[in-house]
Each structure stands twice: as C-alpha cells, then as structure tokens.
Amino acid sequence: MMGIFLPKTENRKPKTILRPAAHLSLKMQWLDWGLKLLVPALLALLLAGAYHFGSLDAYLQLLNSRSYGAFLPALGAVYALVVLLFQLLRTVLWACYRPYPRTDGLLPSVTVIIPAYNEGAMVEQALNSVAAAVYPKEKLEVICIDDGSTDDTWDYIARAKTRYPHLLKTVRFPANRGKKEALYAGFTQARGEILVTLDSDSIMEKDALGHLVAPLLADAQMGAVAGNVKVFNRNQSLMGKMQAVRFVNLDYLRASQSLYRTVICTPGSLSAYRREALTPVLSAWRRQTFLGAPCYHTEDRALTNFILKAGYYTYYQRTAVVYTLVPETYLGVCRMYLRWERGNVRESCVQLGYLFTRYRRKYRLMPIVEFFLSQLEYPLTLLFLGLLAASIIAYPLMLFKFLTAVAVASLLNLLYYIWLERDLDFIYGIIYSYYAFFLLQWIYPYACVTVRHRGWLTR
C-alpha cells in the first residue's frame, strides 16, 4: 500500500480522513496561482537566455575533441532517434486505445480483497466505496484482511462489518505478515469468478467494478486488468499536485501497452484478475525468491509477470477509476519510488527470462522492444550526465540550454496530460521534471545495489 509511511507504534494517532477536495485551501490557492504565473515567466526567460547568450563554438570544440565525449554524442543521437520513433509509435497506439465498453448483460461474481495495515479511518472509506458500487450485491463479496495492525484499523473494519454483515468478510492476523500474505489469504478464501484488489488507502468510483470486469468478459485470453489510478490528496500539497500530474501521465504508458496486451504492472490500488489465470500461479507467487531472498515488495508487478508468463493478456481500463493516497513529503516519495524501483529491477530480470520464449501466440515483439529501450534508458542517462558536466565546464552557458531542454521535453510529455485533463495543472508536471532530475536520480542505482533489501518500505 502506498501513501502513509509511519513506523509501527502503539501510540500512533488515528489518521485524518482525507476527502478529494474540489477546491484548494486558501494557502494552496495562493501557491497555485503564484506558480501558474511564475513558471511560464521563468520558462520564457530560459528560452530567451538559451537563444540569446553565446554561440555553440566552445561546445562543438568539446564534442570534436579526442575524449570520451566524442563517442557519447553519436551514441546519444542514435539512442535519441530510436526513443523518438518509439515515442511516436506509442503515441499512435495511445491515440488508438479504447477502453472496453461496460456491459449491461450477465455479470460475473466478484470478490474485492482489501489488505490493511495501520490504515486507520481510511480503510473504512475504502470499504464504503465498495459497498456503494453499482454492481449486483448478490454477486459481490468483500474480504478485508487486517495485517496485524497496531493502531485502530481493526475498529474501523469491525464497524464496517456491522454495517455490511452480508457483504463483508473480515480476517485478522495476530501479527504483521506482509501485504503478500494478506492478499494470499484473501485470494484463497474468495468465492468470486473475478478477484479484485483494492488498497486500503484507495477509494474507487461507483461504476469502477462494472468497467473493470468488461475486458475479462470480452476476451477469454485476458488474465488481468489494471484500473485508472488517480491521486486522492492532489489538492493537499505541492507534492500531491506534482504526483497527480505524474499519475495521469501513466495513462499514456498503460494505454499504449494495452494495444499489444502487455500492461507490465496491474497496480494493487485497483486491478482485476480472472480466477483461472490467478489460481495456478498463486503458490509460486507467494514463495517467489530473487537472489536467494524472499520477494516481499512490489507484489503487484510480480503477480502481473506471473500472469503474462502463463500466456494471458493484460489490459488497462481507463474508465475504472480509483483514487489513492500518495506521499506528501520528499522522504515519503523516496520510499515509494525505492520500493517501486527495487521491484522493477527484480521483475525486469524475471521478464527477461520468458520474453524470448513462445509464452503466448501473439503480441510478443513489442514487449521485447519496450523492454530493451527501458533498460537502456538509465545507464545511458548516467553517461550523458558526465558529458553534460563536461559541457557546462567548457561552455557554462550550456546550462541555460540544458534547463530549457528539460522544460521543452517535459512539455512534450505533458501533452498527454493536457489532452486528458484540460486544465492548467500541467504546470506542476514541469516542476516535477526538475524535481525528479535533481533530487530523485539516485533512487534507481541505489535500488539496483539494494534489490534484495526490505528496508525503507511501507511494511
């Protein structure tokens, strides 16, 4: 579960119930308007500076010198061209993407599984959102597992149980076992034909379940479906605003992957699994190890890998919307991304193990192309950082051009956000680009060397 990152303690105060606010607080209103005026002005200054100051003679001399820099620009140009072409292809796929239409016909039975650990009052809101779902109640089951919480989480679960006695089944672990064990308990006790995971810090829209099962009804080869994850606390802080833009832009990635039926991560916040696809891989998923260490984190990415390896398709359903809490501090964001990156490193190795096999009949080429482009991205970034540093030393005004390039690149990526959301919050995506470049670059290499570690995670 992502969102709140606090240590276990008996003296923890209950979490405040956050509601998705349509309006910003007065403080956030001032900050919002200030940034929407300041950021475009700064970008205009950067563009003017990059265009006006100096020539590129010194920089060109650097590139022509007999140094490591002579090779890197050529490598960078080739890689940039390949990435650009792939970006254009992805954009075409994204534009062609359509969510499966919701059916009004015969619906399958669904079990929603909600693992909870020290989630406080938020878990009750998650349960309420499922109870309010526009889905036949006789075909809906909810299992909530308290994973050994040390706060008042169980009190809220018990209160929900009295409110929905025929809908909700509860399980309470005497001690914390980890999210994977909580999910496993839910999966093995579920009666539904479709098994849905919902994080206890997440609230789904009323029609989300109906939309989520639509791809599974339409295609028997579909094994898992990812929901559309948005930020619940987007109006609470600057960090919430930045994360909200980033989460919306994930639509571009998952929608394009859907055209070749390979969404590589069906998120724990909201995803649906066909029972026939899930049951055969449960034991292997539960006991998964990597480099001799048990795999505790990023269980959603791992489960998606098992589903894909078994030959099933995965899809993204834009119309199945869920709102989830995200961290609002630098430390919290680092914890979340470190957990994600450790899982990505591990599961990329797992994915490589089956990508070149005949694990399914169709849609095998594009996942291979995407895999290698994504794996090359960060190593080449590190090489180019060295070139950038040398360039700035030889030609200091190159810094203007670099900062401008970051803004232009982020604006191009934010076109997807602008098309989907049609608001001015894309400004926060530009801020996030600089934030990520200067403050989050260390996470991927650190994740690579600590991939077996459990520390600094949510549990």
Task: Please give a structural write-up.
The protein is an alpha/beta fold and 459 residues long. The protein has one domain: Spore Coat Polysaccharide Biosynthesis Protein SpsA, Chain A (Alpha-Beta Complex). It is built from 17 helices and ten strands. The strands form two sheets. Strands 3-2-1-4-7-6-10-5 form an eight-stranded mixed sheet, with helices on both faces. Strand 8 and strand 9 (293-294) form a beta hairpin. The radius of gyration is 23 Å and the shape is globular. It starts with 25 loop residues before the first helix and ends in a 10-residue tail after the last helix. Residues 1-18 have low confidence and may be disordered.
Features of the shown structure:
459 residues; alpha/beta; Spore Coat Polysaccharide Biosynthesis Protein SpsA, Chain A; eight-stranded mixed β-sheet; two-stranded antiparallel sheet; 17 helices; 10 strands; 13% strand
How many distinct domains? 1
Q: Measured on Cα atoms, how large is the radius of gyration?
A: 23 Å
According to CATH, what is the class?
A: Alpha Beta
Question: Which superfamily, in CATH terms, is the homologous superfamily?
Answer: Spore Coat Polysaccharide Biosynthesis Protein SpsA, Chain A
CATH architecture: Alpha-Beta Complex
- State mean pLDDT (0 to 100 scale): 87
Helical region count? 17
- The side-by-side strand order for the widest beta sheet comes to 3-2-1-4-7-6-10-5
Shape: globular
State which percent range the strand residues make up. 5-15%
Helix content: 40-55%
